[in-house]
Specification:
The complex is a heterodimer of chains A (about 140) and B (about 160). Chain A is mainly α and about 140 residues long. Helix content of chain A is about 75%, strand content about 0%. Chain A has a domain of about 70 residues. The chains are: A mainly alpha (about 140), B mainly alpha (about 160). The interface between A and B is large, with 112 and 118 residues.
Chain lengths: ~140, ~160
C-alpha cells in the first residue's frame, strides 16, 4: 500500500469544508452515523436535511464515478461474507451506542475540542488496529 | 429550505472528499490500522486536513449567535465520558477493523455495489436500528405488563370471564 499524504490532506480538507459549511449555514453536525440513524429510525424533526445530505453523498459518489471510475474499481472483499455481516452489525450498533463514528466524533467532535469525542476516537482507533492485527497477523499463523 | 439545500451540497462535497482522500477504499483504511504490518499513515493526514479546516471554521462559525440559514445550532449536549460511549466506540472500531468500512465510505460505495458491500450495509442498517428497536420493545413490554396489573385492564377483564 502506497503512502499518499497529498491527496489524503486535500480530501480531508474537503471533508472539513463540508462539515464547516453544514455547521455555519445550517447549524448541523456532519456525523454520518447520526444522519443514517435519524433516517432509519426517524425522530421528530430533522429528517429533511438528513435525507438531503444522504442523497448528496450518493450524488457525490456518482459524480466521482463519472470523472474517475478507477476510484470505484472492483476490489476483492476485505473479509468473508459472514465476517462482513458481523462487522456491519458492529459498526451500526456501536456507532449508535457510542453516539458517533469517524466523522461525528473524529472530524466534528475533535474539531470542537470535545473530550467525549477524543476518548471515542482513541478507543475505536485502538480496537480497529486490534481487529486488523488479529486478522492479519494472528489468525493466519494459527492456520 | 435553504438549510436542506446546504445539507445536499455538503453531502456531495463530503463524498468527493472521501473519494479524494482514499477512505472509500477499505484496503487503504486497513493499511492505516495495520500498525503491526506495512503501516500506511495516509489516514492520519485525512484527519489532519479535516480537523485542521473544521477546527478553525467551527470556532469562527460558533461566534455567531445562530447559523446563517437556521434558527439555532444543533450540537451534541452530552458531556459525560461513560460506558455506552466507550463500549460503543470499542464495538464500532472492531467492526471497522474487520471490514475496512465506516458509515460514510460504506454509503458512498453504494454507487458501485458489490455483494460484500451490500452484505455490510444491510447488516449496518440492522445494527443501527437494533438499539432504538430494543428500547421500543422494552417500552411496549412495560406498557403491557402495566395494563395486566390494572384490575380494569383488558387482561384483568379476560381473567374475570375465564372459568
Amino acid at each position: 500500500m502506497t503512502f499518499t499524504p497529498g491527496s489524503a490532506l486535500l480530501g480531508g480538507a474537503l471533508i472539513g469544508l463540508s462539515a464547516s459549511g453544514l455547521l455555519a449555514l445550517a447549524g448541523r453536525v456532519a456525523g454520518i452515523s447520526g444522519i443514517v440513524g435519524g433516517l432509519l429510525w426517524p425522530r421528530r424533526g430533522g429528517t429533511a436535511w438528513r435525507a438531503a445530505f444522504f442523497a448528496g453523498l450518493l450524488i457525490g459518489g456518482l459524480l466521482v464515478r463519472e470523472w474517475a471510475p478507477a476510484v470505484f474499481a472492483p476490489r476483492a472483499p476485505a473479509a468473508p461474507a459472514l465476517a462482513l455481516a458481523v462487522a456491519g452489525l458492529m459498526v451500526g450498533f456501536g456507532t449508535q451506542l457510542g453516539g458517533g463514528c469517524t466523522s461525528g466524533h473524529g472530524v466534528c467532535g475533535l474539531s470542537r475540542g470535545s473530550l467525549r469525542s477524543a476518548v471515542a476516537v482513541l478507543v475505536f482507533m485502538t480496537t480497529g488496529a486490534l481487529a486488523v492485527f488479529v486478522s492479519r497477523h494472528v489468525l493466519p499463523r494459527l492456520g | 429550505m435553504k438549510s436542506v439545500a446546504v445539507a445536499f451540497f455538503a453531502g456531495i462535497l463530503f463524498a468527493i472528499g472521501l473519494c479524494v482522500s482514499g477512505m472509500t477504499d477499505p484496503a487503504k483504511v486497513l493499511g492505516f490500522l495495520d500498525v503491526g504490518g506495512s503501516w500506511d499513515p495516509s489516514l492520519a493526514f485525512v484527519m489532519a486536513g479535516a480537523v485542521g479546516v473544521h477546527a478553525i471554521a467551527a470556532r469562527l462559525a460558533l461566534r455567531a449567535s445562530r447559523p446563517v440559514w437556521s434558527d439555532r445550532y444543533s450540537l451534541p449536549t452530552r458531556r459525560a465520558v461513560d460506558l455506552p460511549l466507550i463500549a460503543g466506540a470499542a464495538i464500532f472500531g472492531l467492526g471497522w477493523g474487520i471490514a475496512g468500512y465506516c458509515p460514510g465510505p460504506a454509503v458512498v460505495n453504494l454507487v458501485a455495489p458489490s455483494p460484500g458491500l451490500a452484505t455490510f450495509v444491510l447488516a449496518m442498517a440492522l445494527g443501527t436500528i437494533a438499539l432504538p428497536l430494543s428500547r421500543a420493545g422494552m417500552r411496549l413490554i412495560k406498557q403491557t405488563v402495566g395494563v395486566n396489573r390494572e384490575p380494569g385492564g383488558a387482561a384483568g377483564a379476560a381473567r374475570r370471564t375465564a372459568p
